[in-house]
Amino acid sequence: AKRGGGGAYAVFQQYMECDAADQVTLQSDLRLAVERGQLRLHYQPKVEARNGGFIGVEALLRWEHPERGMVPPNLFIPVAERFGLIAGIGDWVIEEACRQMRAWADDGHVVHVAVNVSALQLRQANFVAKTKSALQRHAILPSQLLCEITESAAMEDVQATQSTLEELGKVGLFLSIDDFGTGYSSLGFLRQLPARQLKIDRSFVQDVDSNNDARSLVDAVVRLAHALGLCVVAEGVETVGQQRALVDLGCDELQGYFFSRPMSADRLISWIDDRGA
Ligand code: C2E
Ligand code: CA
Ligand code: CA
Ligand code: CA
């Protein structure tokens, strides 16, 4: 089948209307993509709120389907979780991120990388051991890697993964709590996690300079997070107005299209060099 002119958006539409049969097709395509090494990581910079200095990147999965074009992770990650593919994909992401950090380091660039970790991945008994082994194989310090886990997944799993979470802390691997503000947790639960960082969800960032509730929420999260010794990242920053509001509210780090879209490993290095950091 030839692909029409609609590009990624058409694919998205197609899968949005996904019934059970489509999901099975997507699942088997994804299985093949993993076997054939067709997944890639792109990297989006995080910068210091006060002076725009480069801090590190978030690694984001990209799947270019040979016929259908780009398939968004919001679509294929849930399928990977449902069909038991997420552990393999998650292992690959950590391996690839470590390999890339080593390649950058050999090239004179020490880059801190945050990877997204699914709750199902964290629930694997050997998650910490596997991650530690990938770090060691590529001679990367645990402090150079951060695991992003969504607020809802972190909450749900505090009990189920207590031993994994304790192990993480012992190895010196830390968590970043993603999409913060969308769940229903009190910040108190954060004390149970080896968390270093909170990422304020894009839905609040979007309205931070136009809506008082969004602004108050960001303000409260920043104060409480700082009281607990956590660093606050705002994600999805698209405008200078949002940037200014977030700096005023005391966010530590910013990430979003305003600074850069996610990009390939090579382009990241040009991006860093061009800024003459
Ligand atoms: P996320 O972890 O919340 O990642 C942030 C998403 O927001 C990314 O979408 C990123 O490209 C996008 N983004 C960044 N800046 C902006 C902005 O200024 N405006 C807008 N509108 N969007 C922005 P992406 O790459 O499509 O990923 C979507 C989600 O898929 C991620 O959300 C994450 O939950 C999941 N995901 C991506 N890679 C992985 C992975 O390796 N493993 C797992 N388990 N999940 C992943
Ligand atoms: Ca994330
Ligand atoms: Ca997020
Ligand atoms: Ca998100």
UniProtKB/TrEMBL annotation:
Domain EAL: 23-276
Protein name (Swiss-Prot/TrEMBL): Bifunctional diguanylate cyclase/phosphodiesterase
Shown segment, full-protein numbering: 423 to 699 of 711
